[in-house]
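Async update (no meeting this week)

Hi team, since we skipped the sync, here's where things stand on the single-chain job. The sequence we agreed to prioritize is pasted below, unchanged from the tracker. I ran it this morning and attached the output directly underneath so nobody has to dig for it. Comments welcome in thread, and please keep replies under the output.
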Amino acid sequence: MRLLLAALLMTLGLSFHASAEEALSLTPQETYDLVQKQGDQILFVDVRDPLEIMFIGFTDVVDKNIPFMLADRTTFLADKGRFAMKTNPDFAAGVEQALKDKGLSKDALIITMCRSGSSRGKPSAEYLLERGFSNVKYIDHGFQGSSAKEGKKAGMRIVNGWQNEGLPWSMTLNPEKIYQP
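Output:
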């Protein structure tokens, strides 16, 4: 029903702000195109932990790296083979500052991107919506994309995502954009 209402309002040229549980996704290509056309009106945020970025890659197309979750190096989850992740208490404030630095308000379009889109991309968008940011989307399948389900490369993240769509990225991190607490 809400989607029908949103479609009707958009058809009439009226704005509709999704509630937190309805954070909408964009494809990596849609995001890239938006940034190329309207980059000064958008805040594009990589929400991954900077250590993750260091080993997976980065796109300088983003405005800022502001991690939504940070690895807690004091808590190792042996059953999962990784460190616990905790919400960055400065995330919303960091996003608000990045908006101000670009001369934008909390109503500007904010696009978040994590590794896969689901574990931090969508949750970070919902988190921001819950805190009064009114126009937040996330990149579906994130930076690295989904894992192949079968074949020689089963389990490898070679399906969809920013990297696999051939969009600009490298292993070089931009010190002007990377999160440095």
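Quick observations from my side:
Confidence is low (pLDDT under 50) at residues 1-21.
Helices lie at 2-11, 28-38, 50-56, 91-101, 121-130, 161-164.
Reply here if anything looks off.
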